[in-house]
Write a structure and sequence with these properties.
Strands 1-2-3 form a three-stranded parallel β-sheet, with helices on one face. The chain is elongated and about 50 Å long. The protein has helices spanning 21-37, 58-66; strands at residues 9-14, 46-52, 74-78. The chain has two helices and three strands.
């Protein structure tokens, strides 16, 4: 019987994170990849970004990060 690994949805709140977002995204994606490769979590695990009304380009970066990445498939913008 195959082992089922947990699906992790990592919720990431963002507010005016334009400068930090690219670095945080790479670190989070790297961590998900490492955990998946180690067999600790399912390859269906993903990041869920929430932008809480940022006045900078955070939302645009979140939208761009989602393109072509199954692990960045969820996002919410709160105004």
């Amino acid at each position: 019987m195959p082992v089922e690994h947990p699906i992790i949805a990592l919720v990431v709140p963002c507010y005016n994170e334009e400068d930090a977002f690219p670095y945080a995204l790479q670190e989070l994606l790297s961590t998900l990849r490492k955990l998946t490769e180690a067999g600790n979590i399912s390859d269906k695990s993903y990041l869920f970004f929430i932008d809480d009304g940022s006045s900078d380009r955070t939302w645009q970066l979140i939208e761009r990060a989602q393109i072509g990445r199954a692990s960045c498939r969820e996002r919410v913008e709160i105004s």
